[in-house]
Structure formats: structure tokens, C-alpha cells
Design goal:
The chain contains 7 helices and 13 strands. By secondary structure, the protein is of the alpha+beta class. Strands 3, 4, 5, 6, 7, 8, 9, 10 and 11 form a 9-stranded mixed sheet that branches. A two-stranded antiparallel ribbon has the order 1-2.
């Protein structure tokens, strides 16, 4: 390498500013100096927000048993056993949706559209067992409403998003006693919305799309009305775009249920339920 050397260390005198003059310096070969070291990387680095969100969502996805490999395929295969060919006909499609009851509680459900029925299955994705089936005759469905959720003005527990409500037997509201009974099953309608992780897994995304479910349901109901109308009732189904009213006010029970995801088969610490 080259080193700077003062002129007075050797060489003839000269004018100011020339090599060899006092105060001047010349470049001469010299010994090896200290090795070059690159600057150290910064102690802190900022991660891209997109990576952070993706990792967090993937972690939450693994908490749901339905999204574990092979679970949904086995559930769909086993759930077909509940279909009664003489009463339901053939299965047209299977869906993974969230039911919203009349007290705003979320419940994970497998829903089957058949030729003549709508089957709503309470399925345990941990033990892989169908625990309950609600059968709704498509020919009895008279109104299908689609829209955003709506609550009373003084309600303390509200939700956002879009839902679909299916009504039958020409009853738009349950009785007063049934409306105020959180465990009542004598409700003349059922309400669905998309699963909270519907867009997180491409393999099951097609089973969770509410818009596609709506299209196939309307087609199936119209076909059932045409082929097997109920005596004494008007044929056809009324399809409306209007808010989906949920009449809850305090909503403490549904708040706890929905925040803790108690209506879903999930891992909860070292246990799952």
C-alpha cells in the first residue's frame, strides 16, 4: 500500500510545495496497515408489516381444527350419512359457514343443500362427529333476506358484516317468549355469515363464500317450489336486500361467547373444545 512521507525525511531541498520541500509530503510504498473492516449492521431492523400480519393469521388458522389437513375432507365424507334420499334427495353442495342465532351467538356449522332440504349440521371437528342436524324443507322457505347486520339503537353488543337470513312458514318473527329465551330452538328463521377464517385457506375458501351459497340456495329453493309446492301456500320465494335485524340489547353472553370463540372447534391452551 502507499503511505504519506514527509519531505524532510530525505531527498534534496526544494521550493515550497514541491516534493522534498519542508511541509510537503510524498506517496511512497509502505508496510501493511490495519485491515479494512466493513461497517457493522444496525442493531435494530424493522420487519415488513405484511410479513408480520401473514404470520399472525397463519398462526390463528392452525387453532381451528377444521383447517387441519384432511379434517374438512373427512367431515364432508361422513356428514353425507345424515342425508335421507327419500326425504332430502341428492346432495348438491356442502358449505362451511357461521350461524348467528337470535342472541347474536356465533356457531360453526356445516351446511348441506340437497334437492329438497337444507341440512344444518353441528359438527365436532375434534372428535369428527355430527352432534345435531336441523332439517329445513326448501319448499317451506318463503323469504331469503341478504344485507348488513342491524341492531336496536341502544344495543351494547353489535357486529359488522353481511349475512343471509332464511325464513319459513311465513313467520318473520319468533314469539316474545322465544325471542327472550337464549336457548330456544323454536325460531322460524336461521341466519348465516361467512366463517371468520374464510379467506385464510385457499383449499376451503370455496366452501365458505357466502355469495356463492346464496346463489345456489335461491336456485334450489325455486326448484323445490316448482317441483313440490306446499298445498295452501303461495309458490315462489321472496328474495330481499335489506338489513338483518338481531334484537339484542345488553348481549353480555354473546360477547363472551364470540370473543372466546366458544362456538368453534379450536385449541385453547393445552386442550381443545
Amino acid at each position: 500500500m502507499l503511505q504519506l512521507r514527509d519531505a524532510d525525511e530525505g531527498g534534496p531541498g526544494g521550493g515550497s510545495g514541491s516534493p522534498g520541500s519542508p511541509g510537503a509530503a510524498t506517496l511512497v510504498p509502505g508496510g501493511a496497515g490495519p485491515p479494512f473492516e466493513p461497517p457493522a449492521p444496525p442493531a435494530r431492523q424493522t420487519l415488513r408489516p405484511l410479513s408480520v400480519r401473514t404470520a399472525g393469521r397463519a398462526g390463528r388458522l392452525r387453532q381451528y381444527f377444521v383447517f387441519r389437513p384432511g379434517t374438512i375432507e373427512q367431515a364432508v365424507s361422513e356428514i353425507r350419512v345424515v342425508v335421507l334420499p327419500a326425504e332430502d334427495g341428492e346432495v348438491q353442495s356442502v358449505w362451511l359457514l357461521t350461524e348467528i342465532d337470535h342472541w347474536n351467538n356465533e356457531k360453526e356449522r356445516l351446511v348441506l343443500i340437497t334437492d329438497w332440504s337444507l341440512l344444518v349440521c353441528k359438527y365436532n371437528f375434534i372428535s369428527l362427529q355430527c352432534q345435531q342436524v336441523t332439517r329445513i324443507a326448501l319448499s317451506a322457505v318463503d323469504t331469503i333476506s341478504v344485507g348488513e347486520f342491524e341492531f336496536p339503537p341502544k344495543s351494547l353488543n353489535k357486529r359488522e358484516g353481511v349475512g343471509i337470513r332464511i325464513q319459513w312458514d311465513k313467520q318473520s318473527r319468533a314469539s316474545f317468549i322465544n325471542r327472550w329465551n337464549p336457548w330456544s330452538t323454536n325460531i322460524p328463521y336461521i341466519t348465516f355469515t361467512e366463517h371468520p377464517m374464510a379467506d385464510a385457506d385457499e383449499k376451503v375458501a370455496s366452501l365458505c363464500r357466502l355469495e356463492n351459497f346464496q346463489t345456489q340456495l335461491i336456485q334450489a329453493v325455486k326448484k323445490a317450489h316448482k317441483e313440490g309446492p306446499v298445498p295452501g301456500s303461495a309458490t315462489g320465494v321472496l328474495v330481499l336486500e335489506r338489513p338483518i335485524l338481531i334484537e339484542t340489547y345488553l348481549g353480555l353472553m354473546s360477547f363472551i361467547n364470540n370473543e372466546a370463540k366458544l362456538g368453534y372447534s379450536m385449541t385453547r391452551g393445552k386442550i381443545g373444545f
